Amino acid sequence: MTEGKRLVIGLDAGPRKDWNTASLVREALAGAAEAGAETRLYRLYDLEYKGCCSCFACKRKEHYLEGVCALKDGLSPVLEALRGASGFVTGSPVFIGDVTACLRAFWERYVFSNLNYDRDNPSVMAKGPAGVVIYAMNIRRDMIPEMGYDALFRSHAAFLGRLNGAFVEQIFACDTLQFSDYSKYHAPMFDEALKLKSRAEDFPRDLAAARAAGARLAAA
Q: Which one, out of 60, 109, 128, 151, has a CA that is 20 to 30 A from the CA of 198?
């Protein structure tokens, strides 16, 4: 990391390298870079790792690993980078009512190893990194309460907030384009014209929101 510069870590938890989630995370990092931060991007789908194995090494008194997950695998360099970061951006599509499995596994490892079983001091971090969480989803924004996603997103903000971060901001990119050509897929419930309209009109606003959030993150 360049001396004197803030570091913002980007975590792309989407499976496609050049689609909605990837574009949104890159845009947020671009905003952070414009605001003077050093940025680093990790694609979680490219890494070999698993979720928490409940070993509790991070909680053992005799060799207390403060904020360090004892598992050593492809996620270890990411967790180490986050220890020196002032902010992070995570982006994920919503699959079957939640973030992708790789982001959930990351959160298990990152959040749990930094939590205290202490009512007065919930985190081993004196001050955790600020965060932006970006969700890309196929549903319209007005369907978020109907699908129960509002409670889900509040729970995400709550457990990330326990890490004593400056803030956790959430961005919702809704009614996203799933396919570049709907005629090639069996998806009769979707109107391709309306999807393309949303892509042309709404997605640029989502990208702009991600960029602005990245800039705020760098300044937090």
A: 151
**Burial class of residue 7 (count of CB atoms within 10 Å of its CB; 0-12, 13-18, 19+):** buried
> Which of 206, 205, 217, 123 is closest to 168 using CA atoms?
217
The 38-43 sheet, strands edge to edge:
38-43, 7-12, 87-93, 130-136, 168-173
CATH number of domain containing 44: 3.40.50.360
pTM score, whole prediction: 0.91
Contact by Cβ (8 Å): 159, 196: no
pLDDT in tens, 106-142: 999 999 998 888 888 777 777 777 899 999 999 999 9
Q: Is the dihedral of CA 81, 107, 219, 33 positive or negative?
A: positive
In a domain, 51, yes or no: yes
pLDDT digits (tens, 9 = 90+) for 132-170: 999 999 999 999 999 999 999 999 998 888 886 667 899
